[in-house]
């Protein structure tokens, strides 16, 4: 006989929301303060910043390492450890104002961030039933965005009004993440895993469409992360305050619409949701190449960010086609696949930018077109054994 639930708030979905709020408190602060801290305190030039950004992406590329750590830790415990690394790396950043110091703290912070993101996807897909997963994933995005808004406000209050220096800003935000991680570790029970997960790398031929869409998603994301913001500054002269307002607007839009987008994905299906996303991104990237008005460029930037929220559909698509025991291993592998482009695109497309910024965004539109064509292969009702339209044709032969 099961014991009665004495604490109904100790639920997996609430734990996921608490941890989702902990991440941007550190990561948003690290991003918001990085450029000023690196230049003012560590005398960074473009060379050092490029190396730092490459180092930051390495843990994402090596996210498959999560699979081997599962030999030592439960996924839920490893998620707590990852959050602690994220918070500790952020908290220590202000105490090491040097090139090597910033490189090392960035690696610690990034290791925690990327491993937690991998584990969050895996745990969410295991803990949440398929009928409500899209809406719950949208709720997690909204929770993280709301925490990011509060973090930007906290930084403004601490920096402009209280005149705190970088050491205290990094220590405050990183420390909050550490405290939340410890509270979650102590307050929540270890939730059962309904299916034992593989403790080795899993690459299955029948998941090829998911792998391809994941790779293309990572490639397109680099165009947005690296070059869209750069366009705002170089072409339209956006100030630090202008960029910060764009970040706040993006986070606010996620708070308002991410849950609704998740609900929409659940209603219209993954194939239709991805078709909408990729069609919209083709138009947005083409717009970046042609835009001449600063206000219109800002509108494209916000739309770009909002369309990416529809990537929830890619996660729920995998949840429907995956064998339950493959979820953790494939989450690590797919996160590495997603980051392959992060190693190549910033540098190679940076050289292309020198010749023609417009070409960078036309290539982004072409990537979105490839994703659109691939998404046409997703069945209306994907499931294990019917991962793509070719699988049904093969079964009928």
Describe it for me?
The protein is mainly α and 397 residues long. It folds into 2 domains: 184 residues, MFS general substrate transporter like domains (Growth Hormone, Chain: A); 193 residues, MFS general substrate transporter like domains (Growth Hormone, Chain: A, Up-down Bundle). It is built from 15 helices and no strands. α1 runs parallel beside α4 and α1 packs antiparallel against α7. The longest helix is centred in the N-terminal third of the chain and has 31 residues. 45% of the residues are buried.
In short:
The chain is mainly α and 397 residues long. It has 2 domains: 184 residues, Growth Hormone, Chain: A, CATH 1.20.1250.20; 193 residues, MFS general substrate transporter like domains (Growth Hormone, Chain: A), CATH 1.20.1250.20.
